[in-house]
Amino acid sequence: MLCFRRQIRSYIGTCRRYCSRNVRDGQYCLDLVRKQDYEGFLVSLLMPEESRSAAITLRAFNAELASVRDSVSNVHIGKLRLQFWKDGLENIYAGKPAHQPIALELFKAVNRHKLSKRWLSRMIEEREKTLEDKPFPSVADVESYAENTSSSLLYLTLQSLGIHDVHADHAASHIGKSQGIVNLLRGIPLLAQRRDVLIPMELTIRYNLSQEDVIRGNRSQDMKDLTYDLASLANSHLKHARKLKKDVIPGAFPAFLATAPIDSYLKRIQQADFDVFHPSLSKRYPLLPVKIWLQNYRRTF
What we know:
Blueprint: H1 2-18, H2 23-36, H3 38-45, H4 49-71, H5 75-93, H6 101-113, H7 117-129, H8 139-160, H9 166-193, H10 201-206, H11 211-215, H12 221-243, H13 259-271, H14 288-298
């Protein structure tokens, strides 16, 4: 934990050096990520110093987009909030960022690291498609969503590291898909409390489960089998990414520290016999910071 305290101090120092308009913009992004994406917060702290500010900003941008669906009362308001970011992105690339902390920090990251507008736009567009909280039709649709959100975030993180490599991008695609599927699994109990179900209809039909079954916290063998299918797919993407390790240049590895939380969750859900509603899965894994630090120390993913 001492290592992470040092990383936090180092990041704040980076903010003071880089945030020419207002130190509070960088601190705003840091606080947002720490609150809404704690695992991403830990991962970003171990990024090289010259890329750390951009990594935190990208995580803050992602957290901001992800929060839209949960914080609006109807789809129309959600679309208006996402339109703000569509317009904001145009203004950032036109050199006229909005006076909003994430927009100001993103403007600096875009200019410093030449971040691709395509990936940022794709993240916004994909979030807009899922504002209505409807179940995914198929597992392939979940993978597509994960590619357009989680994988896009990793492509941008690679760019912040100065990495432009087809093998790194290929690994990022699989890691992002694994991350997206794990996020879906982790969200099942939370969404059930709001009477929302995003599990692919393809799977609920296969295992003869209704949306009401999921909302009530069904812990039957059928629900465990459904969870097993999703966890196995996430693990398959993770294993595929790791097979590419020998071809990925070492400079890309910090972007892939996200595999530590993914791997941790998949092992924990296996220990819980694929009961996605098991109370242990809702608790923060206390050794995760150490696991991330060790992965970074060993320069692997």
